[in-house]
Specification:
The chain has 616 residues and is of the alpha+beta class. The protein has two domains: 139 residues, Alpha-Beta Complex (Penicillin-binding protein 2a (Domain 2)), CATH 3.90.1310; 324 residues, 3-Layer(aba) Sandwich (Beta-lactamase), CATH 3.40.710.10. The protein is 34% helix and 22% strand. It contains 20 helices and 22 strands. A hairpin with a 6-residue loop joins strand 11 and strand 12. Helix 17 packs parallel to helix 18. It is elongated and about 150 Å long.
Length: 616
């Protein structure tokens, strides 16, 4: 029995020892697992990091921009940008030194950036490397898990600075900044794609998971209404005007009155060649318009009341597209719209005459004056001679209700809707704030602020037989199928009223009135001059020496093909600051360029015939 008991005891001991051994073995395995998973063995962690799947962004390419003739204005080129994984870098100073040696970086600064981002997986080193820089980085042979190139697209402008205020630009992240680049962002920018890659322990890509690949949807291209050749000539003429008159700024707008298409748009000073637009507005304009003082015009650059225009930095002035992002009192260029409304409402007859008080007319508590002593004037002569008193008497016929209706009908006080960010709506006070002063001020283009584009579009409506068309820059969207934008039009005044104004008074403004310097041999030109007084920061009232001269014109009067508007902010050189002197010659030159570009034959060819010389 004792032998049996000893054998049983021995068997249990062996079983216990075996169980203890198994327990110990499992304990070692468990400790090892905990060591790897819980305590983070450095070598295993790095190996795991190197051999994993990661997602790579496949960037979409922004669409191109073309002019109306198909000339390339903006395109995108594929480029490489360098990024690193700071968490995978064991020797930050060494990596920084190597990269700094080929990219001409500050080694200490790059080292500090890497150290500060040691817990991050991504850090940009340099965006958009050129080919030599990219090849030099490859030649460093850094560990593949430390660095990589990311494909991006860089925006290029083959025409240089041409139409810079119209086109705008794209920032480092390919976001539109100003111009149609921002205005048409929803069309030009596509949708990025992605793909999943698998790297081995050395950091090299070994496979692509095609089942998870999403192809990028590239942006659509757009054709604009501007013509680059005409745009170039307009910009050259505007630059010449800047040299001749030395103003604070100037702009030009060329419209097709029958379509609302912007054939050219230019602004000066020129846009700075480097940097990004200032914050607060894509076209250098503030996020919201400054409060508009009733008693004076707003400077084209819109400084706060009481601040000198010269206080605004020149580079900010250059970023601004004055055609849409600056406001001024339109002055006499506004008068034809009031006359059109008065005739259309039947309160004034085209052949009617008004007595202009020989240069002075009391209206309530104030006395209005003309530049000359006029007596009896017809409606035509009120426009030809630009009589403020005559316009005030027409305003009395319309009353404030009719004046407000005319101003709003012609599009003042709201944006035109052109495809450009930063467009200001102008300033038209609520009707409840109008007074008896408004009855005399509004008809002469005071107590209202407009953008140059608003004035050009309103004159285009008269040239288009009284029908207003929204000014626009997008001609068509290109891609799988050509798409053209819908253009909104509305009738403002009757065809008879509009045609009478264009072929009658506004033509005589050029033949015998304030716009004689806009005459073009062979063409019947119509137009209207404007000279707006600016705010005097010292007195808070109108300045007698600082003006904005403007001129709107078109041709041929019987069938207008183009409208041109020039606005010149505070000319400091030249014989005069009046619109008929400072703006009309440049407007006529641009109008002639446009007619030549359109292939429009002279409507008065007899003026071009060379008369034979008399023999002695």
């Amino acid at each position: 029995m004792s032998t049996l008991r000893q054998q049983a005891r021995s068997s249990r001991l062996r079983s216990d020892l075996l169980a203890c051994g198994l327990i110990a073995m499992w304990a070692v395995i468990a400790f090892r697992l905990i060591s790897v998973q819980g305590f983070g063995n450095v070598d295993s962690e790095r190996a795991a990091r190197r051999q994993h799947a990661f997602v790579e962004v496949l960037p979409s390419r922004p669409g191109d921009l073309y002019d109306r003739a198909g000339r390339l204005l903006a395109t995108s080129a594929r480029t490489e940008s360098l990024a690193i994984d700071p968490s995978a870098i064991e020797e930050p100073a060494r990596v920084a030194g190597l990269l700094a040696s080929v990219l001409e970086f500050d080694e200490a600064a790059l080292t500090a950036r890497i150290v500060a981002s040691h817990e991050k997986r991504f850090l940009w080193v340099k965006r958009r490397l050129d080919r030599e820089e990219a090849d030099a980085v490859r030649g460093l042979r850094l560990p593949p898990d430390v660095w990589h190139f990311r494909t991006e697209f860089e925006r290029l402008y083959p025409q240089g600075s041409l139409a810079a205020h119209v086109l705008g630009s794209r920032d480092i992240d390919n976001h539109g900044r100003g111009g149609v680049e921002e205005g048409l962002e929803h069309l030009l920018v596509g949708q990025d794609g992605e793909r999943t890659l698998l790297r081995d322990a050395r950091g090299y890509v070994i496979d692509v998971d095609s089942t998870k690949t999403i192809e990028p949807q590239h942006g659509r291209s757009a054709r604009l209404t501007i013509d680059s050749l005409l745009q170039m000539k307009v910009e050259e003429r505007l630059s010449k005007l800047m040299e001749e008159c030395q103003p604070l700024g100037a702009c030009a707008v060329v419209l097709d009155p029958k379509t609302g298409e912007v054939l050219a748009m230019a602004s000066r000073p020129e846009m700075p060649s480097v940097g990004v637009p200032p914050s607060g507005g894509s076209n250098g304009a503030p996020n919201s318009a400054s409060p508009y003082p009733t008693s004076a015009t707003v400077h084209l650059d819109e400084p706060p009341a009481g601040q000198s225009p010269a206080a605004e930095p020149d580079n900010a002035n250059g970023w601004r597209n004055h055609a849409i992002a600056s406001m001024f009192e339109p002055g006499s260029t506004f008068k034809p719209f009031i006359v059109a409304a008065a005739i259309d409402r039947g309160v004034v007859q085209p052949d009617e005459e008004f007595h202009c008080g020989h240069g002075a007319y009391r209206m309530g508590r104030r006395v209005l004056h003309d530049h000359h002593s006029y007596g009896q004037l017809s409606v035509t002569d009120i426009l030809v001679k630009s009589s403020n008193i005559g316009m005030a008497k027409i305003g009395e016929r319309l009353q404030n209700e009719g004046l407000f209706a005319a101003a709003t009908a012609f599009g003042f006080g709201r944006q035109t809707g052109i495809e450009l960010p930063g467009e200001l709506p102008g300033q038209l006070h609520p009707f409840s704030e109008w007074t008896s002063y408004s009855t005399g001020s509004i008809p002469m283009g005071q107590e209202i602020a407009t953008t140059p584009l608003q004035v050009a579009a309103a004159h285009a409506a008269l040239a288009n037989h009284g029908r207003y068309l929204t000014p626009h820059l997008l001609l068509q969207i290109e891609g799988d199928g050509v798409e053209k934008p819908a253009i909104i039009g509305r009738e403002l005044v009757s065809k008879e009223t509009a045609d009478w104004l264009v072929t009658g008074p506004m033509t005589e403004v050029v033949t015998r009135g304030t716009g004689k310097k806009a005459q073009i041999p062979g063409y019947t030109v119509f137009g209207k001059t404007g000279t707006a007084q600016k705010l005097d920061p010292k007195t808070g009232g109108y300045s007698h020496s600082r003006h904005i001269g403007s001129f709107a014109c078109g041709a041929p009067a019987s069938d207008p093909k183009a409208i041109v508007l020039i606005a010149v902010d505070e000319p400091t050189a030249g014989p005069s600051t009046y619109g008929g002197i400072v703006a009309a010659p440049a407007a006529a030159d641009i109008l002639k360029m446009t007619l030549d570009y359109l292939g429009e034959s002279p409507d008065r060819p007899e003026e071009l015939e060379v008369k034979p010389k008399k023999r002695r």
